[in-house]
Amino acid sequence: MADSARAARMAKRISSIVASAIGSEIKDPRLAYVTITDARVTNDLHDATLFYTVMGATIDDEPDYEAAAAGLAKATGILRSKVGAGTGVRFTPTLTFVLDTVPDAARHMEELVARARANDELVARQAERAEPAGDADPYRSADDAADADSAEDGPRE
Question: Which pTM was predicted?
Fold first, then answer.
């Protein structure tokens, strides 16, 4: 029977083992700006998917996703042996690395919210100086009610 709680604990442990190995033990310069963001392990504990992000050397530099993917592909065997030694399970799960798109999606959502706020402010400014399209008072008044009462009294001649 599959145990999802055990798989979640294993995913957390694998994530920390791989992150510490990338940060301190693997000397590949392509992995210098790689961060492990999440890990998922199948319930049978045979496959692990690790999500990662890549930052640039500076804020203005664009991250090199291809080099990071190549570095992770080359280091997969070493990382898998470290995971096997660190977890002590009978079968060491296979490691698959997937670029995490959540930060990019979050950034895109923030841009959309900022654009919507700017449009709301524009509409609010336009509404301040707007004038009604029809009469100033489009609703019935007391004079209209008096006219309606006289019309009910009888036909006009």
Answer: 0.66
